[in-house]
Write a structure and sequence with these properties.
alpha+beta, 21-stranded antiparallel β-sheet
Length: 768
C-alpha cells in the first residue's frame, strides 16, 4: 500500500522545522526546511532528500541556487560566498566539477574546467591586476601548454608545471623582442636564443597570428566541453535523518578551491626586459670601417643554469646554426606526442592501446600468484602468457577500442620477481604505463631504428626490439636475474617486462619495458652515449641541441669526484662489465646525464657583462661575434651525512640501491645538498656530485686555463642485447681493413670490456 502524499504539513524533528508536501512522514515535493542553526532550504524533495531545483541559505549569508540530487549540490548552480566570491557552473557531490566560472573575493576570475573543486583541464584565469593565463591546469596549478600575458604586454607561450614555466617556450617582451628557450621551475635553464625587436626572421613567423589562433582553439575547446558535459547519475541510500553534510560548513565552497593568493605570484614571474638585452657592440666590416650591426640580422645564442647566464655569443642571422633555426620553428608548431600519434597514424593508436591492455592483463593475472623463488621452468619456452583480445571482448578480456590482436608475455614470473626486486609496486607500474595520460614518443638516440616511448610520469622507457635482441634477452635472462639479485647497486639497465603484440596481417612488434635513468626533478643539460671507441663517435655540430645525445669524441670534460664515490663506481662498473663479457655482449654504452649547477653567488646576476667589459672581450671570428664566456669559480656541491627522514622516499626507478659513503665526510653515508633545490640521496649512478673540468685552448704554453662547473651525474649501462656473433665478427674483419682495429666498436668482448673501463678511468681521473 503506497503512502499518501499530502501538502502543507508542518513537521518538527529535533528542533528542525519542515513546511511543505510530504509522503508519509518524510518531505516529498515542494517544501521549506529550516535547521536549528538557521540554515534554510527551499525547493524540491524526493523521499526525504533534496532532489531537483532549490535554494539554500546559510547563516553566514552564503547562498546556493540550482540543482540538487540525493542531498548534494549536484548539477548546475550558482554559489555566492559570504566573503564576496561567486561561482556559477557545474557541481558534483558538493564540489565544483565540470565547466564553471568563479570570481574570487579579490576580483580574480577563473573560467574553465574544474575537477573535485580545483582547476583541472583547460581554463582562463584573469587576475585583478590585468594579467591573464589561458591554457591547461592540473590540481589547481598551471600545468601543460598555456599562454600567459602580463599587463605590460609581455607574453609567454609554452609549457608549465606546478604553476611555473617548465619546458620549452617563447617569451615575447612588450617591446617586440623574443626569447626562445627552455625553463626549469620558473628559471631559464639550458640553451636559448634572443632576438631583438624588428628582427627580419621574426616577421616571417606570423607570431601574432599564432597566439590568436591558440586562444581561439582554447576558447573553442571550452565551449565544446560546456556543451557536451553531462550530469552523472547518483545512486545513494536514504540518510538516517533529513540533513545535509554541507549545511554547517558553507565556507568551504568559497575557500576550498584554488586560492587567488597562491596564484598572485605570477606578477613576479615576468622576465625583466633589461636582463634580456645585450649591449650592442661595434664590429669591423670588411673594408675596415667601424659600424654598428643591424639589429635585424643579429641573434643572441645563450645558455643558462638555473637563471644565471653562463655563455652567450652573438651571431649574424644569415649564418644561424641549425639548432637556432629549429628553435624558431617552435612558434609555428610544438610537437606534443602521445600514444595517439606515436607512429603518426591510426595504426599507432591501436598498437599503444594494445600494449596497455596487454600489460594490464598480464600484471593483473600474475600479481595474485603467491611469491616464490623462480625456477628453471620460469625461463623456458613454456613460460609464456598468450591471450587473444577481440574487439568485442570475451569472458577473460574486456571490450576495447583497438583492433583484434594477439598478446604474448615472456617469462611473467621472472619479471614479476624482478619488479619486486626493484621495489616496484604493481599498481604504480600499471598506472604509469596504462593510465589515461598515455605515452610519449622519444627520438631514437642511436642507429638501431628502435622506437622509444616514455611513460607520462617519466619513470619507464618502452623500447621496440628486433627479434634477435629479444632472443638475446631471453637467453641471458637467468644470468641477468642472478646478477641483479646479487648486486643491489648494478648500473645495468633494469628490465621490467618483455612483450609481443601481433596485429592483423601478421605484423609482430616486440617491446621491452625499462627504467628511465634520467627520472629526476633536475634538468638534464647534456646527454652522452659513451662506448670507449673513437671511430665515427662524434655528432655534427649543427645538429646539436639540448635533446641531442652526444658521443665519445664530443665529450670535452673530465669529472673529479669524491674518492670513495669513485671507488664504488668503478668497482661496480668492473663487476657489470665482467658479467657482460661472460655473456659475450658488446656495443653497450655508458649513458651519462649532466645537470649543471649555477654558482650560488651568481644566481642574482641575470644579465651579461656590462658594456665596458664587453668591448674588451668581444671579437669576431668567421662572421660570428663571440662574447667572452664567463669563467665562473664554482661553489662546491655540499655532501652531508645521510638522513633517511630528510630525503625523498617517492617511488621511482632509483628506489633500490644503497646510500654511498663519501670520503669527504668521514666515510659516512652521504646525501647531496643542493642550495635552493633540496636534499637528494646519493646512490650509484644517481645524484652523484662531481666537478666537470674543461681545458681551454690558449695562445700561451705556460698558462693552463680551465672552465670548472659543479655537476650532478646520472649514469647507467645500456644497450646490452648485442652478442658478438658471426655478423659482428665479419663486421670487425671488414672495418679493420679500412680503420684502426682498436678504434672500431665491433671487437671481441674481453677487449671491448677493457677498452670501455680504460676510457671511463680517463674520464674520471683518480685524484692525487
Amino acid at each position: 500500500m503506497e503512502l499518501e502524499e499530502r501538502s502543507c504539513e508542518k513537521i518538527i524533528l529535533n528542533g528542525d522545522v519542515y513546511l511543505g508536501a510530504v509522503k508519509g512522514m518524510t518531505p516529498h515535493g515542494k517544501g521549506k526546511y529550516t535547521w536549528l542553526d538557521g540554515t534554510i532550504y527551499e525547493g524540491d524533495w524526493v523521499e526525504g532528500k533534496m532532489t531537483g531545483k532549490g535554494k539554500i541559505y546559510w547563516p553566514s549569508q552564503a547562498t546556493f541556487e540550482g540543482d540538487f540530487s540525493g542531498g548534494y549540490l549536484h548539477g548546475s548552480g550558482t554559489f555566492t560566498g559570504s566573503e564576496g566570491s561567486f561561482y556559477r557552473g557545474s557541481w558534483k557531490m558538493n564540489s565544483q566539477h565540470g565547466i564553471g566560472r568563479k570570481q574570487y573575493r579579490n576580483s580574480d576570475i577563473y573560467d574553465g574546467c574544474w575537477r573535485e573543486g580545483v582547476h583541472e583541464g583547460s581554463g582562463r584565469y584573469a587576475w585583478s591586476s590585468g594579467n591573464v593565463y589561458i591554457g591547461t591546469w592540473k590540481n589547481g596549478r598551471m600545468s601543460g601548454r598555456g599562454i600567459m600575458k602580463w599587463l605590460n604586454g609581455d607574453i609567454f607561450d609554452g609549457f608549465w608545471s606546478n604553476g611555473l614555466r617548465h619546458g620549452s617556450g617563447l617569451y615575447r617582451f612588450g617591446d617586440g623582442s623574443y626569447y626562445f628557450g627552455t625553463w626549469s621551475k620558473g628559471l631559464k635553464d639550458g640553451p636559448g636564443t634572443f632576438y631583438r625587436a624588428g628582427n627580419k626572421h621574426l616577421s616571417k613567423l606570423n607570431l601574432g597570428g599564432h597566439k590568436v589562433k591558440r586562444r581561439r582553439q582554447l576558447h573553442s575547446y571550452l565551449s565544446n566541453e560546456s556543451e557536451e558535459s553531462g550530469l552523472p547519475s547518483v545512486n545513494r541510500t536514504l540518510s538516517e535523518k533529513i540533513s545535509s553534510s554541507f549545511r554547517k560548513d558553507s565556507a568551504r565552497f568559497s575557500h576550498g578551491t584554488t586560492s587567488p593568493d597562491d596564484l598572485s605570484r605570477t606578477g613576479s614571474m615576468r622576465e625583466i626586459t633589461s636582463d634580456e638585452k645585450t649591449q650592442v657592440v661595434s664590429v669591423t666590416s670588411n673594408d675596415g670601417r667601424t659600424e654598428f650591426p643591424d639589429n635585424r640580422t643579429l641573434a643572441y645564442e645563450r645558455e643558462y643554469m638555473q637563471g644565471v647566464l653562463i655563455k652567450e655569443r652573438i651571431r649574424n642571422i644569415t649564418k644561424l646554426s641549425h639548432k637556432s633555426k629549429q628553435r624558431l620553428k617552435f612558434s609555428k608548431e610544438v610537437n606534443r606526442t602521445s600514444c595517439m600519434d606515436i607512429y603518426r597514424g591510426q595504426r599507432s593508436h591501436y598498437l599503444m592501446l594494445s600494449l596497455q591492455l596487454g600489460i594490464r592483463y598480464t600484471v593483473g593475472k600474475i600479481t595474485p600468484v603467491p611469491m616464490r623463488e623462480v625456477r628453471s621452468s620460469d625461463f623456458g619456452e613454456q613460460a609464456r602468457i598468450k591471450m587473444f583480445f577481440p574487439r568485442k571482448g570475451t569472458q577473460l578480456t574486456p571490450p576495447h577500442n583497438s583492433i583484434d590482436f594477439n598478446w604474448k608475455d615472456y617469462c611473467p614470473m621472472v619479471f614479476r620477481n624482478l619488479r619486486e626486486l626493484f621495489k616496484l609496486n604493481a599498481a604504480d607500474y600499471m598506472m604509469s604505463i596504462c593510465g589515461d595520460d598515455g605515452l610519449r614518443e622519444l627520438s631514437s638516440p642511436g642507429k638501431s631504428g628502435s622506437l622509444f616511448y616514455l611513460s607520462h610520469d617519466d619513470r619507464f622507457v618502452i623500447k621496440t626490439l628486433k627479434k634477435s635482441e629479444l632472443k638475446v634477452l631471453l637467453k641471458m635472462l637467468p644470468h641477468y636475474y642472478d646478477h641483479v639479485q646479487a648486486h643491489d647497486n648494478t648500473l645495468i639497465t633494469k628490465f621490467f617486462g618483455a612483450h609481443r603484440i601481433s596485429l592483423r596481417r601478421g605484423k609482430k612488434v616486440r617491446f621491452v619495458v625499462m627504467g628511465n635513468m634520467f627520472c629526476t626533478e633536475l634538468r638534464i643539460h647534456r646527454r652522452y652515449d659513451l662506448k670507449g671507441s673513437s671511430q665515427g663517435r662524434f655528432t655534427n655540430k649543427d645538429e646539436i641541441d639540448e635533446s641531442t645525445t652526444l658521443k665519445d669524441l664530443d665529450l670535452t670534460y673530465e669529472f673529479h669526484m669524491d674518492r670513495l664515490l669513485r671507488d664504488s663506481l668503478f668497482k661496480q662498473i668492473s663487476l657489470d662489465c665482467g658479467f657482460l663479457e661472460s655473456q659475450q655482449i658488446i656495443d653497450y654504452s655508458l649513458l651519462l646525464g649532466l645537470h649543471f649547477r649555477a654558482p650560488e653567488h651568481l644566481k642574482s646576476l641575470l644579465e651579461p657583462p656590462d658594456a665596458e667589459q664587453a668591448e674588451n672581450t668581444n671579437h669576431m671570428v668567421d662572421g660570428v661575434i663571440s662574447q667572452g664566456e664567463l669563467l665562473i669559480p664554482p661553489r662546491a656541491l655540499l655532501l652531508v651525512t645521510h638522513e633517511p627522514t630528510s630525503v625523498s622516499t617517492a617511488p621511482g626507478p632509483h628506489v633500490r640501491g644503497d646510500a654511498l659513503k663519501a670520503y669527504s665526510i668521514g666515510n659516512k653515508e652521504a646525501d647531496l645538498l643542493l642550495p635552493g633545490t633540496g636534499r637528494l640521496r646519493v646512490q650509484l649512478g644517481v645524484n652523484m656530485p662531481a666537478q666537470a673540468n674543461h681545458k681551454l685552448i690558449t695562445d700561451s704554453a705556460e698558462v693552463e686555463l680551465f672552465e670548472v662547473y659543479d655537476v650532478v651525474l646520472y649514469l647507467g649501462i645500456i644497450d646490452i642485447l648485442q652478442e658478438y656473433n658471426m655478423k659482428k665478427k665479419i663486421e670487425h674483419a671488414c672495418k679493420s681493413l679500412k680503420y684502426d682495429h682498436l678504434a672500431i666498436s665491433a671487437v671481441e668482448p674481453s677487449f671491448y670490456s677493457k677498452r670501455f673501463v680504460t676510457f671511463l678511468e680517463r674520464m674520471f681521473p683518480l685524484q692525487p
